[in-house]
Amino acid sequence: MQHRLNKTTLAWAVGLALGAAPGALLAAGFYIQEQSVSGLGRAFAGEAAIASDASTIYFNPAGMTRLKAPEFQAAVHLLVPKSTVTNSDSRAITPGTGGNPLPYEGGSGGNPYEPSPVPNLFYARPLNEQTWFGLGITAPFGLANEYDRNFFARYDSTETSLKVIDIAPSIAYQLNDRVSIGGGINIQYADATLKNALPDPTRVGGPSVDTDGEFALSGDSWDYGFNIGLLVDLSDDTRIGVHYRQGITHTLEGTATTRLPFGLGGTSVSQGGEADLKLPDMVSVGLSHRFTDRWTGLAQYTWFNWSNFDEIAVKLASGDHPDPVRQNYKNSWALALGAEYQLDDRWTLRGGIQYDTTPTQDGFRTTRTPDGDRTWFSAGASYERDSRLGFDLAYTYIDVAKESLNLDREFYDGLPFASSVQLRGTTEGHVHILAAALRYRF
């Protein structure tokens, strides 16, 4: 066999088959709406309009002008996801299969998720009668999953980790008794790690877990963006809010490491590289209407500009530019409806539902983001101990619809042992969320 190639060239030809990996980070499942416990309790219905606590800094900073006093809020959301990926006759085509598509070994991968806490902090205070200052620290994107070693789709992914931390100093100004504007600077840190297996093209009968290689990519980035909001009281009982959040593009710089499969020598090569991680622009319109002294109805529509992520291009320190890989994301939207009930002076009860569409499409969906359209069912409550101290609790169940997995992954393109894997299956799942917050007014 013709294996007498430069080892570095060979390793990178192997690794570049995974050039699409950074793009797999981006899906509805990686946007974390959970930045308000009271908001979670109503499935985030009316979040751009209601301005009930300091978490309005994230959803519409103009809402700070409606707060009753300076406020500090600390919260944590515990996400407990489960995903099931089912094999539907996936096959490999390698020299070891004689060029024929043959089934290869591999299991379901198990549930790739562990329970994940998502904390956030907010602080808001007035600077004068019209102007407020706020600071929010959140994690608006992120996920960590890891499949079993013998996962049938291991040539698509074995491990994914994404963390995005957002620091948002914000200002709000009350133009008059009914209209306020606000905005903030978003200072973001992004860190990503991606791993997947590489098939051994020389193994007779098809690739095996024991002879697989591995490709790993890690990188991080600091970058900046902004958000801006408008809040209008249409009447004493009705309020509308509009909020825009810029989609920040991170250029992740880091290291990619390729460990060749056993049949290609098993050696490892590392090299620096970079890839863009494009987060979506978001536009939200929220509505709050008080029907009685006790009942308030809420609604919200959010649009996500995922279509700006149509491909992913990787640039290596060597100067190599592999062909961009199509992601074909589509714009998506979410619609939420909810209500709150003022039980007495201390207790507020709330609930809501949300329908959240996925930007992933058939033929491009990946096991890094086993995502589908989502339906949310939420309930929550707030308790005011006194005029200063308050607590929020919420629970949400999210059903993730069943979707197809239909991917063709190419390896060692242009080399004598060029191979491919046909991944066929389905994905579905659900998420439980438990959340609690402490609020203190000064």
From TrEMBL:
Record-linked SUPFAM superfamilies: Porins (SSF56935)
Membrane-topology descriptor: Multi-pass membrane protein
Q: Where is this gene product found?
A: Cell outer membrane
**What does UniProt give as GO cellular component?**
cell outer membrane
Question: GO molecular function: any one?
Answer: long-chain fatty acid transporting porin activity
The source's superkingdom equals Bacteria
Alphabetically sorted, this entry's keywords are: Cell outer membrane, Membrane, Signal, Transmembrane, Transmembrane beta strand
Chain spans, region Disordered: 89-108
Is Transcription regulation tagged as a keyword? no
Q: Which family does it belong to?
A: Belongs to the OmpP1/FadL family.
Q: What is the name listed in the Swiss-Prot or TrEMBL entry for this protein? A: Membrane protein involved in aromatic hydrocarbon degradation
Instruction: Give the source species.
Output: Thioalkalivibrio sulfidiphilus (strain HL-EbGR7)
